[in-house]
Write a structure and sequence with these properties.
Distance between the termini: 50 Å
Mean pLDDT: 90
Structural class: mainly alpha
Radius of gyration: 14 Å
Number of helices: 6
């Protein structure tokens, strides 16, 4: 019988031991949001929250209920810009990174 693991478990372990991987996930989530792919961005953010700060701590840091945060970061979630900004701020602080957006002119 083949051994299999949940990709979520694999992602969480790697993000916990590899800060550059966690930063790359955050960068990818931001890029997806800005490029009009919010569903994938929310899924990546949810996995990143689970791997780093956790939803209970995120709830404390953002002063929002944990269940609401879970719904916001579901595939069908619809977080406001204020909520997204708060979530990104907590994850950035947890990872100890800053983010900058650089516009590239489309060809």
């Amino acid at each position: 019988m083949a051994l299999t693991r949940s990709y979520k478990h694999t992602i969480a372990e790697r993000a916990q031991r590899d800060p550059e991987f966690a930063q790359a996930l955050l960068d990818e989530a931001a890029t997806l949001f800005l490029n009009g792919e919010p569903e994938m961005a929310r899924i990546i953010l949810r996995d990143l929250v689970n791997a780093t700060v956790g939803f209970e701590e995120l709830a404390k840091e953002t002063a929002r209920p944990s269940k609401s945060l879970h719904r916001m970061l579901s595939a069908k979630g619809n977080p406001s810009m204020d909520n997204l900004a708060a979530i990104f701020a907590v994850i950035r602080a947890t990872l100890g990174v800053n983010m900058e957006v650089h516009a590239v002119r489309a060809s």
